[in-house]
Amino acid sequence: MNSSTAQKLAIQRTEKSRIDQVDFENLVFGNIFTDHMFECDYKDGGWHNPIIRPYGPLTISPAAKVFHYGQAVFEGMKAFKDDQGKVWLFRPEENYKRINKSCVRLAMPEFPRDVFFEALTTLLKMDKEWVIPGQGNSLYIRPFVIATQAGVGASPSTEYKFMILMSPAQAYYTGDVRVEIAEHFSRSANGGVGAAKAAGNYAAQFYPTNLAKDRGFQQIIWTDASSHEYLEEAGTMNVFFRVNDTLLTAPISDRILDGVTRKSVIALAKQDKIAVEERRVLVSEIVEAAKNGTLKEIFGAGTAAVISPVSAFSYQGQVYELKKPDDSYAAKFKQELMDIQYNRSEDPFGWRFEVC
Ligand SMILES: Cc1ncc(COP(=O)(O)O)c(C=O)c1O
């Protein structure tokens, strides 16, 4: 299915950049987009007409299958500017592989590697000024694929659109996160689409997350759908539990997104000689560890916030508060990851990808 297009990437530049109109001191995450976007269409069994053009609206049939059957997948990645003004990506190959994995699960065609990297690097070079320097600042990159064939027959679309948008993102501190452990709702099930970055996975989380917010919690830690006894992941993050000095995290399965930040944290922990156990983690063992004082930290790992420390969790109506330890693993991994992302330290794993 990975049919390549031999066509050359077309480029239409904007006549006037919008960058002067942007208040970079007060950005709301994901609301402002750079001058250009990438677009490529799938039809008759192949990808055609790759083009970078000024960011702007699309014209799509209201019968397009994406609106009716939710055939849509996406990715989230970031570009960083170092102190010398160079732009870097972090492990982009992982996002490329994952969007194709998501496409396969949603019966959508895979996208050719050469076109993805040419589009991504060309777009970044064109909109380089939009990558704000400074620790924590970045350019959030959103590749996505939607089903564009007009027709409300419940079958896979024969036409698709692959796009890349980019949005400047400021360093932000959301505060420590209070989470609720899921006891009723589920994010994903065995054999389902939890391991894909399918748009519908996120739509399905909004309602239970709103209920948790009404009770004073920002996020839900999802548990397995069949028993609700095992901890899996949070809204847009994988989750780590530090019991004594060992890190526990759920193994990757068809219910869990194989996070790039998660696998990077595991690699750093191994390098730092911190014990990591990728295994099923019982809610009851974490509750027990919170009660007996051996639960030192819980933190989420994901591209948006890198590492988010959890300050409290709720389970069966009981709230367990967590004190920040002096030797926080969350803070240590966040700094180590950012030092690699911003080209401030060695990159022993080869994770940095130089763009321009
Ligand atoms: C459901 C879910 N889990 C985990 C993650 C973290 O993945 P990554 O570290 O690749 O951003 C994300 C964000 O992409 C997500 O949406």
List keywords for this structure.
eight-stranded mixed sheet, binds pyridoxal-5'-phosphate, 28% strand, 356 residues, 19 strands, 7 helices
What can you tell me about this protein's structure?
It is a single chain. The chain has helices spanning 65-69, 92-105, 113-126, 199-214, 260-271, 283-292, 329-341, and strands at 10-11, 36-43, 46-54, 72-74, 77-81, 87-90, 138-147, 160-169, 177-181, 219-221, 230-231, 238-243, 246-249, 276-278, 281-282, 295-302, 306-315, 318-321, 352-354. With 356 residues, the protein is α+β, with helices and mostly antiparallel strands. The strands form 3 sheets. Strands 1, 2, 3, 4, 5, 6, 7, 8 and 19 form a 9-stranded mixed β-sheet that branches. Strands 9, 10, 12, 13, 14, 16, 17 and 18 form an 8-stranded mixed β-sheet that branches. The chain has a two-stranded antiparallel sheet with strand order 11-15. α5 (260-271) links the parallel β13 and β14 (276-278). The chain binds pyridoxal-5'-phosphate. Pyridoxal-5'-phosphate binds at residues 76, 233, 236-238, 257, 259-262, 301-303.
